[in-house]
Amino acid sequence: MIKYLGSKRTLVGVLGAIAQASNAKTAVDLFTGTTRVAQEFKRLGLDVIASDSATYSDILAKCYLEADANKVNLQELEEKMAYLNKLPGKSGYVTKNFCEEARFFQPKNGQRIDAIREELEANFKTDEHFPILLTSLMLAADRVDSTTGQHMAYLKNWSHRSKHNLELLVPELIPGTGKSVLGLAEDVISELPEVDLLYMDPPYNQHRYFTNYHIWETLVRWDNPEPYGVAMKRIDSRSPHTHSVFNKRKKMPPAFKDVITKAKAKTLVVSYNNESWVEPIDIAEALLQNHESVALLEFDYVRYIGSQIGIYNKSGAKVGSVGERKNKELIFIAGETSKVEAIEDVVAGRGIEPRT
Fold first, then answer.
1. Alpha carbon distance 185, 53 (integer Å)
2. Phi, psi of 204 (to 5 degrees)
3. Cα–Cα distances in Å, from 211 out to 150, 227, 243, 336?
4. Cβ neighbours for 230, distance < 8 A, ≥ 6 positions apart
5. Nearest Cα to 114, choosing from 132, 81, 92, 133?
6. Contact in structure between 332 and 296 (CB atoms under 8 Å)
7. pLDDT (tens digit, 9 = 90+) per residue, 308-344?
8. DSSP characters over 170-213
9. DSSP secondary-structure letter at 247?
10. Which residue has the higher pLDDT, 242 or 191?
């Protein structure tokens, strides 16, 4: 899975245990991001809907949720991947902007990304395996990048992994059913069906995923946007329509509460950060508008590595300072009192802790 700020990798075990304890058969993962949590729900046998406003997230969801591992022709998929892996490199948008003007990838890998992505666009756009192949390219690029995990800056010196050769591999597909819904949470929440379990993990500060992961957005859209700045971000990052209400201090709290109260689920799970713009009591009060009880779980976790080492630009100057080493992740569980208590007992009884 791609490196991702805000990823719930360390909490997947906890969230999976909550899903099992709730006896859910259907679920929604709102603000799904990399779909990591949605994938865990699907592995546990739930019918899952994943939703996000990011185009790259939609492709990931089509790969991991909509594709049923039991129905994918693996031989055909591997043959297509072998063909793409043999394509010679060709300089294009990625090479120019992310290898020469910036240093996100070594040129040899940028050329391979350009060649494979162009071929996908020209001859695989309507192929049933297109989302899987594009996901594979995203994962391959992530394995050879030179960042600490996001696209606002790159490392002072080339990372060791950046020297490896880009290679497409078959993603770990999951048996079962699922669906991707592309759109803003505040828009899609009213359209989503009622489910047994709805999980949401909204942004909690001004940092936008649209700019933090602009390379993935461009790789999926393949629209050759005008780049700007040291990080060669998309010019449309400056456009109001790419700004989320969840990244605005004054607008985020009421929008968050509105999404909570409109969510249609027997059990509603919200994860949030202690550095957020919304107080825990306000989240609990919003949850109690439609649910009998609310429980709060609290976990310590290590922060994104950029906060520990700082970030450097192309000239070697540090552009990010060292910050706090740890945050607290808060998980709210709302639903019928008996079910909330049962979930608490399961999590406590198993002694489940975040993964390191």
1. 7
2. -125, 10
3. 9, 12, 10, 39
4. 102, 153, 313, 314, 319
5. 92
6. yes
7. 444 445 455 555 555 555 678 899 999 999 999 999 9
8. -----SS-EEEEES-HHHHTTTSPPEEEEEE----SS--HHHHT
9. G
10. 191
How many other CB atoms are there within 10 angstroms of residue 319's CB atom?
Answer: 13
Nearest to residue 28, comparing CAs of 11, 10, 47?
Answer: 47
Contacts with 76 (C-beta within 8 Å, 6 or more apart), sequence order: 129
Place of tokens 């709060």: 296
CATH class of this structure's domain 1-71+174-205+246-356: alpha beta
In 3D, which of 17, 1, 5, 4 has the Cα closest to residue 297? 17
The helix/strand/coil state of 260 is helix
| Token pair listed for 92 | 């294009």
Q: Residue 126 class from Cβ within 10 Å (0-12 exposed, 13-18 middle, 19+ buried)?
A: exposed
And the tokens for 96?
Answer: 């120019």
Tokens of 195: 């489910």
- Residue-wise burial string across 25-51, b where 16 or more C-beta atoms lie within 10 A, e elsewhere: ebbbbbbbbbbbbbbbbbbeebbbbbb
Pinpoint the residues of the chain covered by CATH 3.40.50.150: 1-71+174-205+246-356
Is residue 304 a contact partner of residue 149, using CB atoms and an 8 Å limit? yes
What is the chain's mean pLDDT, rounded?
Answer: 90
Residue 307: per-residue pLDDT: 44
pTM above 0.85, yes or no: yes
Using DSSP's 3-state secondary structure scheme, residue 264 falls into coil
Q: Phi and psi dihedrals of 146, rounded to 5?
A: -130, 60
181-to-109, 208, 290 alpha-carbon distances in Å: 32, 20, 24
pLDDT, one tens digit per residue, over 180-212 is: 999 999 999 999 999 999 999 988 767 788 888
* Nearest alpha-carbon partner for 214 in 297, 147, 161: 147
For 44-105, give the DSSP string: TT-EEEEEES-HHHHHHHIIIIIS-TTTS-HHHHHHHHHHHHTPPP---HHHIIIIISS-SS
